[in-house]
């Protein structure tokens, strides 16, 4: 850690202990002035599928929730808000800011504990109430919120340990509050709720995440405070909350996003998480006369541009870097099969982009809640030719390059190559050791994939595997990762990577990148990778050059989708999915093997969602090579 980081952590520890000692004597929450009210950032005049919301709400009212890999868990009546539903471990009622939420023996898997406490399911209940006016849904919300306020008093327990979790909870509370239109007979409940809103805002204002751990966490914290200040402007402090949060959002939207629209955290999931929050704040601000700068809006558009460019014809987005569920997503009662398409549907209307409309395909209900009844007409009127910008293939600041042909058609070949930095700031917390890796999809079907993440705070061995070089479509030397991990969210050494060649023409795409992760070895190794696509022949050539003097063990990994069938063939393998065939010819002089769900070695796994994994065929080519080496792999795409 830098001296500034060490000083920051020391001051945080001192601050937390001081706050704990005076918690009982904390000043009371001032009464809200309800004459001041904010304008809703939700639009409630569109047509919605009522049964979809009532079905989801009835399930919640019966006490069932889905939490990551757990399906239909009984959350209890009242819910056990401080219990990890996976392990059953009940977190202690200690002062939240001093609670070690990374200790699985103490709190269980903290992501499982926190997820129900984000209260996204209360928004689903509020949507069902809004569409049906059935008092039963409001009663469930009141019962659950009252039980939460009793089980999680201000400052106590794991739900008062993270400003990000408090921020996301406030955004979901804001959505539910706007939908409910609480009546006079609910005034006592409203007062209890408002008291906690004030405490949440003061908690976030004094506990922002800074320095190496900031990243998207800081955006989430500021977003929660900003939305809350506009929703509940009932205290004099609200103006200061809004100003502080807005300044952070303006600064971090630019600082955390490269000018080409790539999140500097090098994580496609983080990109969508931050993008959703930045859009919500933009809309909440516009509804309340709080205008963001052109730079802020242009970064949002650039982020959507990148998302659209790496999304294949089937709606798949590569899972570069850490990935997980748990988006803020306050407006969908069920997990959206492609949240990225929903973001692009919203972006199509906000920025009048026909190419975003083509990617989104349809206007989803989440966008209707955000933009209202007029959204349907505006989306339909978007001319996909006149408002369509040329496809972007090069994102040099972020380090991603899109190679392909027949984009967004059944004949599409789309390869996304990674020559970007490891991650953001000193810790690079959410980056993976995946320099010069790539993904490949054909006709909207995934063939070579980034396997995902699986675990964050627990399962140390799996965390290391999914972050490691062997879990990506790249080269590993001497069984070592390109970058050396120090802990779950930091790195001891970090590979530098870059692009040395990018050319695109109607006939051919060419990319060459490099990284220096193995220059730390006693005999330094420089890895260069050239990828070329002959568009007419639909043939890819991947050429790996290793600049070295002595002998090393060299491995090349190709992770196939779990939907693929992999069969041996002369000089390589044939990879099939439906009617599409990819013939792979591997370099000579080595031995190749397919691993599928292997534990020894740990190889051949894919995680599409947090805490879930399935076996997937992984081709591993291995050889011991001495001196400079050039390894050529060919991939030929055809239809059977």
Distance between the termini: 55 Å
How much β-strand is present in the residues? Answer: 15-25%
Mass-distribution shape: globular
Residues in helices, as a percent range: 25-40%
**Major sheet: order of its strands?**
11-12-13-14-25-18-17-16
Could you give a short account of the major beta sheet?
Answer: 8 strands, antiparallel
**Mean pLDDT metric:** 93
- Count of DSSP helices? 17
What does this structure look like?
- With 640 residues, the protein is α+β, with helices and mostly antiparallel strands.
- The strands form seven sheets. Strands 11-12-13-14-25-18-17-16 form an eight-stranded antiparallel β-sheet, with no helix packed on it. The protein has a five-stranded antiparallel β-sheet with strand order 3-4-5-6-7, covered by helices on one side.
- α2 crosses α5, α5 runs antiparallel to α6 (135-151) and α8 (187-205) runs antiparallel to α9 (215-231).
- The longest helix is centred in the middle third of the chain and has 20 residues, at 268-287.
- It is globular.
- The termini are far apart.
- The model is unreliable at 333-337 (pLDDT under 50).
């Amino acid at each position: 850690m830098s001296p500034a980081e060490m000083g920051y952590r020391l001051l945080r520890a001192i601050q937390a202990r001081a706050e704990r000692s005076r918690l009982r004597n904390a000043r009371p929450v001032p009464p809200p002035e309800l004459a001041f009210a904010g304008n809703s950032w939700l639009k409630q005049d569109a047509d919605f599928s009522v049964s979809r919301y009532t079905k989801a709400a009835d399930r919640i009212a019966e006490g069932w929730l889905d939490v990551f890999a757990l399906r239909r868990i009984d959350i209890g009546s009242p819910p056990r808000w401080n219990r990890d539903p996976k392990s059953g471990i009940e977190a202690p009622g200690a002062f939240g800011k001093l609670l070690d939420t990374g200790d699985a023996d103490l709190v269980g898997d903290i992501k499982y504990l926190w997820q129900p406490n984000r209260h996204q399911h209360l928004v689903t209940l509020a949507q069902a109430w809004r569409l049906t006016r059935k008092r039963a849904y409001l009663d469930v919300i009141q019962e659950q919120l009252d039980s939460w306020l009793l089980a999680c008093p201000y400052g106590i327990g794991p739900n008062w340990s993270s400003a990000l979790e408090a921020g996301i909870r406030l955004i979901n509370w804001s959505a539910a509050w706007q939908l409910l239109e609480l009546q006079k007979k609910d005034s006592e409940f409203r007062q209890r709720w408002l008291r906690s809103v004030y405490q949440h805002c003061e908690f976030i204002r004094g506990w922002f995440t800074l320095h190496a751990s900031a990243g998207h966490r800081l955006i989430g914290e500021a977003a929660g405070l900003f939305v809350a200040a506009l929703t509940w402007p009932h205290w004099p402090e609200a103006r200061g909350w809004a100003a502080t949060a807005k300044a952070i959002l303006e600064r971090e939207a630019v600082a955390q996003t490269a000018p080409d629209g790539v999140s500097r955290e090098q994580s496609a999931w983080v990109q969508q998480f931050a993008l959703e929050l930045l859009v919500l704040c933009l809309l909440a601000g516009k509804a309340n006369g709080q205008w963001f700068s052109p730079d802020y809006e242009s970064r949002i558009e650039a982020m959507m541009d990148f998302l659209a460019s790496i999304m294949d014809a089937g709606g798949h987005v590569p899972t570069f870097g850490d990935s997980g569920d748990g988006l803020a997503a306050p407006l969908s009662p069920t997990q959206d099969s492609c949240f990225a398409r929903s973001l692009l549907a919203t972006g199509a209307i906000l920025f009048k982009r026909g190419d975003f409309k083509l990617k989104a395909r349809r206007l989803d209900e989440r966008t209707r809640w955000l933009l209202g009844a007029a959204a349907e007409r505006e989306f339909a009127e978007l001319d996909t030719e006149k408002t369509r910008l040329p496809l972007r293939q090069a994102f040099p600041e972020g380090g991603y390059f899109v190679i392909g042909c027949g984009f967004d058609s059944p004949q599409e070949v789309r390869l996304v190559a990674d020559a970007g930095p490891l991650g953001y700031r000193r810790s690079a917390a959410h980056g993976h050791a995946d320099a010069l890796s790539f993904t490949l999809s054909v006709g909207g079907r995934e063939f070579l994939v980034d396997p995902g993440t699986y675990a964050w705070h627990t399962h140390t061995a799996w965390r290391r595997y999914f972050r490691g070089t062997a879990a990506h479509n790249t080269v590993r030397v001497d069984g070592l990762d390109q970058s050396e991990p120090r802990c779950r969210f930091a790195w001891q050494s970090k590979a530098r990577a870059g692009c040395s060649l990018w050319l695109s023409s109607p006939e051919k795409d060419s990319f060459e990148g490099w990284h220096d992760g193995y220059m730390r070895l006693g005999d330094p190794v420089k890895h260069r990778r050239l990828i070329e696509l002959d568009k007419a022949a639909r043939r890819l050539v991947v050429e790996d050059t290793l600049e070295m003097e002595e002998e090393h063990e060299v491995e090349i990994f190709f992770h196939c989708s779990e939907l693929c069938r992999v069969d041996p063939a002369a000089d390589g393998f044939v990879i099939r999915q439906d009617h599409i065939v990819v013939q792979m010819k591997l370099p000579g002089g080595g031995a190749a093997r397919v691993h599928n769900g292997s534990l020894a070695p740990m190889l051949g796994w894919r995680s599409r969602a947090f805490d879930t994994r399935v076996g997937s065929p992984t081709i591993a080519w291995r050889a011991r090579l001495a001196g400079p080496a050039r390894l050529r792999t060919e991939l030929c795409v055809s239809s059977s």
